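Hi there,

I know you've been waiting on this one. I reran it after we fixed the sequence typo, so this is the corrected version. Both the input and the resulting structure follow.
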Amino acid sequence: MNTFDTRCDEVQQAIAIKQSLSDAQTSHIEICEHCTALQIEFRRLDDLLEQSMIDEVPAGFADRVMAQITAISPQTQAIDDQVVDRLLAAFYRSRLLQSLLLGLGIAMGVGHIVRFFLGLFITSMAAAL
């Protein structure tokens, strides 16, 4: 695969990054099947990309898209506010949910206290050894 002291990986890298090829690299491509095939595939890929590219984005396109994204009608905002208000009201009225959250908070607090004392105990035991 080495022709004219040119290695395939060097030639293939030059092809991939569209670097201008030296005479030795060009001669290598004429002899090496793998490098020739790679060059053909990269040319095809470049042609496909060029055909699929949009020349220009229409004027004001980004502004129109951003306006649609940020535009919330007052009616939609009012409905969203009502939904949030109802969910919060249901949360505050739910004794079961409040009790569950209180229990979780207490359990986590006790867990942290136990962990603290175990840390002290283990540290003092290690120091005693």
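Quick highlight: The chain has a mean pLDDT of 83.

Best,
R. S.
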